[in-house]
Amino acid sequence: MRVSRLLREMAAAEADLAGRLARLADEHSADRDVSLVARDLAIWSQDHAAGLAERAGSRVPDTVDPPPVADDPGATLLRDLREAYLAACGLATDWDVLGQVAAARRDDELAGLVGLCAPRNQRQVTWLRAKRKESAAQIVRR
């Protein structure tokens, strides 16, 4: 696999995560914590996608909005948090790979991008997991 392909795939994944987080913020605006934090995390992923795309010499890919699903609001929140969490976890492994590539190539610029974005991605993963646990305790009943 070429580095440019990995960068393009990661840019697409970050753009997708940004879209998921922005939708999470929009669809659950009644929960201020979800709305505000998800919006900030979406901005991080937009920045990550832009940096990756720039490095790959491509543009940030567009994301496609999934059709809205009428469901119980609590169940929808848990589903949306799960989907964003899975996307963020997938990216965490990609950031690990890109960090190894940067080290092997002794590419300081790429290492700088990884050094900026990988820790923020880990905070995204941590927040999404914690928020899902917290929400589940409040939403799921016997």
Total beta strands: 0
SS content category: mainly alpha
Quaternary state of this entry equals single chain
The major pleated sheet works out as: none
CATH homology group: Ferritin, core subunit, four-helix bundle
How many helices in DSSP terms? 4
Query: What is the CATH topology?
Result: Ferritin
Can you tell me the CATH architecture?
Answer: Up-down Bundle
> Mind telling me the CATH class?
Mainly Alpha
Mean pLDDT: 90
- Label the overall shape: elongated
Unreliable segments (pLDDT under 50, ≥5 consecutive)?
A: none
Strand content: under 5%
Question: How many angstroms does the end-to-end distance come to?
Answer: 48 Å
Secondary-structure element order, as H and E?
HHHH
Domain count, please report it: 1
**What percentage of residues falls in helices of 4 or more residues?**
over 70%
Radius of gyration: 16 Å
Please specify the SSE layout and strand pairing.
Layout: H1 3-27, H2 32-56, H3 73-105, H4 108-139
Helix pairs in contact: 1-2, 1-3, 2-4, 3-4
